[in-house]
Amino acid sequence: MALAAALTSLRENWRQSILSAVGVAIASIAILLLVSIGLGVQKDISSQVEDLGVNILIVVPARVELGGMNFNPNFGGQSFLTEADAQNLTTIAGVREAATLTFAGGGLKYGDKSAYPFTIATTPEWFAMHKAEIAEGAFFGPGTTTKDPIVLGSIAKETLFGDQDALGKMVRLSDKEFEVIGVLKDQGESESMFSMQSFANVAYIPYQDWKAKHPDAQIDRIMVQFDPATDPKVLVPALEKKLGERLDYQQYSVLTQEDLLGLIFKVMGVLGTLVVGLTSIALFVGGVGIMTVMLMSVNERRVEIGIRQACGATRRDIFRQFLIEAVLIGLAGSFAGLVVSALVNTVLASTTSIKPLMTWGTVALAFGVGVGVGAIFGAWPARRAANQDPVVSLRNL
Question: Strands, DSSP E only, in the chain?
Answer without folding.
Answer: 56-60, 95-103, 108-110, 113-115, 118-122, 134-137, 149-152, 170-173, 176-184, 202-206, 221-226, 253-256
